[in-house]
Write a structure and sequence with these properties.
Elements: H1 2-24, E1 39-43, H2 47-57, E2 63-67, E3 72-75, E4 97-110, E5 114-128, E6 135-138, H3 143-167
Antiparallel strand pairs: 1-5, 2-3, 3-4, 4-5, 5-6
Helix pairs in contact: 2-3
Length: 171
């Protein structure tokens, strides 16, 4: 009897939680939060491997600064007709919007013995209100930066898989 009561209580609680959770979620809101700070990821790979993967991920962007010695990469200014569109919605950018992406790559160690590389991607978006007033910085949703980090991660994974297959004599 006691187990039946606890089973009924658990069932009622889980059903009410499931129904309330769906009712409380906002279907029109995005899951991302607008941000001004860079998106950071640490990779357990060599500096050269991460730099090559980053070059592949940024192959479609116009590059203004590309310096492997200082660990800096910066895109040229990207105008509204060239701006990245998220796959889940269409954004109508205003003609005064501009942005560029700044990447900083730093060598390091993880756990004292493994090589690690810290990659920081910052999207700097500005909007020109009119001809006379200056431009103001706007926060980004972080999706493009996360997409670039995902591409870099995939390039590193592919490179490692090819290297492992070659070492095993499969290629």
């Amino acid at each position: 009897m006691k187990s039946l009561t606890s089973l009924v209580t658990l069932t009622i609680f889980s059903c009410s939680l499931a129904l309330t959770g769906c009712a409380l979620s906002d279907k029109d809101s995005d899951a991302t939060v607008e941000q001004l700070e860079p998106v950071v990821q640490v990779y357990e790979a060599t500096y050269d491997e991460v730099w090559r993967a980053m070059q592949k991920a940024f192959s479609r962007y116009p590059i203004r600064l590309n310096n492997a010695d200082t660990g800096e990469l910066e895109t040229d200014v990207i105008k509204p007709d060239q701006m990245w569109q998220p796959p889940h919605r269409k954004i109508n950018y205003s003609p005064g919007q501009r942005y560029y992406i700044k990447v900083l790559v730093t060598k390091g160690m993880k756990g004292g013995s493994k090589q690690a590389v810290r990659l920081s991607i910052e999207k700097i978006m500005t909007v020109d209100q009119d001809f006379f007033s200056g431009s103001s910085r706007r926060p980004t949703d972080g999706l493009e930066e996360k997409g670039l980090l995902y591409r870099i991660d995939r390039e590193l994974t592919i490179e490692e898989s090819i290297k492992n297959a070659y070492d095993q004599g499969k290629i």
